[in-house]
Amino acid sequence: MGLVMATLANASDAKDKGVPVMFNPSELTVTTNIFYPEISVPGLQTPLLQFLRGESRTLEAELFLDRTNSGESLKDDLDKLRKYVAIDSDLHAPPVCTFAWGKETTFTGVMVEFKEKFGIFDSEGKILRARVTIKLKAYEDANVQYKRINKQSPDRSKTRVTRQGDRYDLIAAEEYGDASLWQLIASANGDDRPRLLAPGTTLSIPAL
Q: Which residues form the Contractile injection system tube protein N-terminal domain (predicted)?
């Protein structure tokens, strides 16, 4: 099997066949951040952490361009990459891009950083070697995300019938992943005590 080159392409334009990199990057960095705001509770030294939302993943890569052997300028090569940070006249924004490399690496996102560093020039000032650092922030259409949402997730109100041994804190831990949120459920059901609940009781589980 021959060498597979990574490509950068316009994800919204089926006619864009993509720009193959001159040399495959030596490494890729993918970062995933999760937002946990702190909840201060009187009397506790360490604030509680409550999951609020996921944040966009990012992909970073350094692309190496070199034409020192041929002596040709890199201007055209650089211009092909620069179009992915240029404002599209129809979108009024830069296009959504897809970085793909073989079968295992496909990342779709918007370009949030595009840094060019030039290393070697000829006697006429033509660029012969460059490094381009790109940073993509993951992009996914809202309709695609909504289709994945579980209708019984804690982001949507629901009801639940209690079982033997149920308490508000145990239910909060199961429904929200955080027992400290038991008061949300208790309050929604006209209660304010972290007590043992009678089995067979229908509770309202509010959305976060």
A: 11-144
